[in-house]
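Summary of Year 1 activities. Much of the first year was spent building the evaluation harness for sequence design. The harness presents a backbone, in tokenized form, and records the residue chosen at every position. We chose the following record to illustrate the format because it has been used consistently in internal testing since the harness was completed.
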């Protein structure tokens, strides 16, 4: 007898609907799974066999063939267990065929028939909805995530028996309630009002948040670089519904989603400097998202930048330029979103006290050169703002003068972002850092005095074309913060002040 049941798997960030075709025929007892299944899927034979027997159902001692279609798509998920098990029940005549029509079944089976959760539920359900499926059965532990998908009836279940009884219309399951909601404003435990002094650094981070620019902070140990970086999410605009959905899908596929609602707080990722290239950019035989993708729509903070292996840092070039990561492996070629703000921090030298007024530097000129050369010129060229961070003075630390709060700064950032959205709407962009040369030409008018200053800057600093464009983009953001329509010489001068080179002996 033949049966057709529908399950789903993940490839990259995309859900794929899998047709589980089951045939039970005469012949020597056997159980075969075909259709480009990985080891995790092939091992489901033993899980399904034990789950059916321990749930009180008959396992047919006949020739069982399972085909996973489309056959040319790699299947790498234990989440097909439930669909395979129900396919055997339908093909064996223990379950009416019409009970599973146009329904998805996603879940791993334990040996006793319990349904275990799987990762990537949200993109699976979104793809199922796009292909006309309206009902899904999944593990009760995936209920909160499954309920995020609108227009889908989600039935959470603890065991295979519960699903069977529901399909036989004996004991109906309760459908999960829809919990998807528009992203609100998140609450933060840190605030810029806690940072005393550091006015230049705070101004640079405000510009970065307003225009989506990358920042490199250089300063002595304990100057406050990490403290400043951890507070930049508090001044970023809140995510809209589309951005929240993108981030939630990424975290779902990565197995990092454990919430009852969509993620509304922008990601802030801070990997240790011992991270591998695959950990940062993504990797594996079937590539999984790395830290740059987990930082999408948020912030990637790299503390002690020169301590990262140079080869690891160099893989940042493409995502910083394109906002995407393209990974090609033998089994799959995938593309992941990676549009983030890079915040990097480093000491000026190995000991950390070069040019420090209160501490003598103990490094030799050769040590400083080797330390600085760990960061390549092309990578530095992709960082818009280079900011010196000096250790605060005692008077600043003990001052009682109130500092600007994150809320006050965020209001200015939001006003600047709204100007950018209106101006860049025809290009489907939403912040200045994403502009290309064409958008710069068409949307960044510069006053005559500014043009003269820009020419002097270009000739004096011997800028590359990329650096030239980035100065204009930063200037455009500074003008947006000032609510100005035209870039002036003053805006350009401030933008150039952030093009500091690395420390030199």
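For this record, the design step produced the sequence shown next.
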């Amino acid at each position: 007898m033949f049966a057709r049941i529908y399950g789903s798997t993940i490839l990259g960030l995309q859900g794929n609907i899998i047709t589980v075709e089951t045939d039970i025929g005469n012949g020597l007892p056997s159980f075969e799974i075909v259709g480009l299944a990985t080891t995790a899927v092939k091992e489901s034979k033993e899980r399904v066999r034990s789950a059916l027997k321990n749930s009180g159902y008959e396992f047919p001692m006949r020739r069982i063939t399972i085909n996973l279609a489309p056959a040319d798509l790699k299947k790498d998920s234990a989440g097909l267990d439930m669909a395979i098990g129900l396919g055997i029940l339908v093909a064996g005549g223990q379950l009416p065929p019409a009970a599973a029509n146009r329904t998805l079944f996603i879940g791993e089976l334990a040996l006793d028939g319990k349904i275990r959760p799987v990762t990537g539920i949200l993109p699976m359900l979104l793809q199922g909805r796009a292909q006309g499926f309206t009902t899904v059965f999944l593990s009760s532990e995936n209920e909160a995530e499954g309920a995020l998908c609108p227009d889908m009836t989600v039935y959470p279940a603890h065991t295979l028996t519960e699903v069977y009884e529901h399909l036989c219309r004996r004991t109906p399951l309760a459908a999960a309630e829809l919990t998807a909601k528009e992203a609100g404003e998140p609450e933060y435990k840190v605030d810029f009002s806690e940072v005393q002094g550091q006015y230049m650094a705070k101004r640079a981070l405000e510009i970065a948040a307003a225009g989506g620019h990358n920042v490199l902070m250089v300063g002595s140990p304990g100057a406050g670089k990490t403290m400043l970086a951890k507070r930049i999410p508090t001044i970023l605009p809140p995510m809209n519904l589309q951005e929240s959905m993108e981030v939630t899908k990424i975290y779902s596929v990565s197995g990092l989603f454990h919430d009852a609602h969509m993620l509304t707080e922008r990601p802030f990722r801070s990997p240790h400097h011992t991270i591998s290239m695959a950990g940062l950019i993504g990797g594996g035989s079937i590539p999984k998202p790395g830290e740059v993708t987990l930082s999408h729509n948020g912030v990637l903070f790299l503390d002690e930048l020169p301590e990262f292996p140079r080869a690891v840092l160099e893989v940042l070039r493409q995502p910083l330029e394109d906002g995407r990561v393209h990974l090609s492996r033998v089994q799959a070629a995938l593309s992941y979103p990676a549009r983030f703000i890079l915040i990097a921090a480093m000491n000026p030298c190995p000991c950390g006290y070069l040019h420090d007024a209160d501490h003598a530097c103990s490094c030799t000129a050769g040590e400083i050169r080797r330390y600085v050369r760990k960061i390549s010129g092309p990578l530095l060229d992709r960082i818009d703002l280079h900011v010196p961070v000096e250790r605060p003075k005692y008077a600043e630390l003990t001052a009682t003068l109130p500092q600007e709060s994150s809320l006050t700064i965020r209001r200015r950032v939001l006003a600047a972002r709204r100007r950018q959205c209106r101006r860049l709407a025809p290009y489907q962009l939403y912040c200045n850092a994403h502009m290309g040369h064409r958008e710069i030409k068409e949307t960044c008018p510069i006053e005559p005095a500014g043009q003269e200053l820009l020419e002097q800057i270009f000739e004096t600093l011997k800028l590359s074309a990329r650096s030239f464009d980035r100065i204009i983009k930063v200037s455009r953001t500074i003008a947006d913060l000032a609510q100005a329509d035209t870039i002036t010489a003053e805006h350009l001068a401030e933008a150039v002040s952030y093009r500091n080179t690395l420390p030199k002996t």
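The chain has a mean pLDDT of 92. Quantitative recovery figures across the full test set are reported in Table 2.
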